[in-house]
Amino acid sequence: MNMDVTGKTGVDDDGLEVHSPMYKNLRLNGPKETIEVPEYLFPETDTSYPSREYLLDYLQSFTRHFDLMKYIKFQTWIEWVRYNNEQEVFEVTIRDLKCENSENVVELFDYVIVCSGHHNYPNYVSYPGEETFLGQIFHAKFFVDAERYSGKRVLLVGAKYSAEDLAMHLSKAKASKVTISYNSAPTGLKLPDIVDERPRMTEIEGPTVKFTDGSSDEYDVIIYCTGYLYSFPFLEEDLRIHTKDTLAPPLYKGVVLPNNPRLLMVGMMSNFCTCALHWIQCHLCAMILKGDFALPAKEEMLKDIETKQLDEKNSVRDFLSTVEFNQIYMDDLVEITGKPNMHGFLDMFKQVNADRLGEFVTHKDTDKFKSLFR
Q1: Rounded to whole angstroms, what are the CA distances from 46 to 53, 349, 365, 368?
Q2: 3-state secondary structure of 93
Q3: φ, ψ for residue 332 (rounded to 5)?
Q4: Which of 100, 104, 101, 102 has the alpha carbon at shortest distance from 92?
Q5: In which region does residue 107 sit, left (phi positive, over 0), alpha (psi from -120 to 50) or beta (all else)?
Q6: What distances in angstroms separate CA 257 from CA 270, 295, 305, 333, 340, one per listed residue?
Q7: 30-61 pLDDT, tens per residue?
Q8: pTM of the entire structure?
Q9: Which of 84, 90, 209, 288 is such that its CA lies 20 to 30 A from the CA of 7?
């Protein structure tokens, strides 16, 4: 089965929307050493910021190493998940995509772990006059190859990681002009010469885009780098969480749904340590399933969630405070699970931040970061 869908848009071989937001020449946002899991280390390479192909190879190798393929049922579409309160089981409606005329079947499960992430449903925005724009408008999820925009004037709406990375790729592909439109503050980075920054856009008139500072310019392409929405259309309402992009989702210990503690969720928070964080969350899930971690009453779980959300509101201000919030959470799970300490991630991200602010254009061309576990 081909698991690399980079560069594909529209629908896949099964007629379903392609989920991958990856694009040509994509590299990791942060050093591989900050997402490494101690049970299976990354193979040595000459860069700390390898390609998407490298990461895919690692994930496939991880799967083979732990002999996981025999537990995975591919090409299976989850239509619906509901909880049967009388029988105390989940009823999961499944469609087998391998059989063209197969009927849906319902299987029963004691627990459900949702690992669908929160980077699939684009957060679309719109501006007055958008219908008059003469060029392309699309979300960053559907960006495929910067070479398509050589010689084009491109506006990136948003000023976080997606916009920064696309600006780099577009400048290398010789776009004639790239503008990053920020909502609250400019990036503070030393961007390529063809990249400028403008405050929030206000309206569109044909090829012309106007900004809040009174300036305007003409563009051929507008790309919305506006993030993603939390959406779980396959879950019944009582099993869904409703939140914006957050470090403290409404889940106990970041994984347990208070309304139904048999439904667990992995990877639902904003984070920089991705694989490592998901790995330790999965170990916590395993402890819960085995009965090795006792869950408190619903009221206590809700109180703990409220405390974490207040902590996020009061303490998270910038990149480093965001990473520190992540680190505190991971330290808590390390204490619960007994897994190796991963506190060194914070120091690495301090260096990442200094590198980005110092030489953004070349900051990924390094191999100076070292594994915490070798």
Answers
A1: 15, 19, 9, 9
A2: strand
A3: -65, -45
A4: 104
A5: beta
A6: 17, 11, 10, 17, 26
A7: 999 999 999 999 988 889 999 999 999 999 99
A8: 0.91
A9: 209
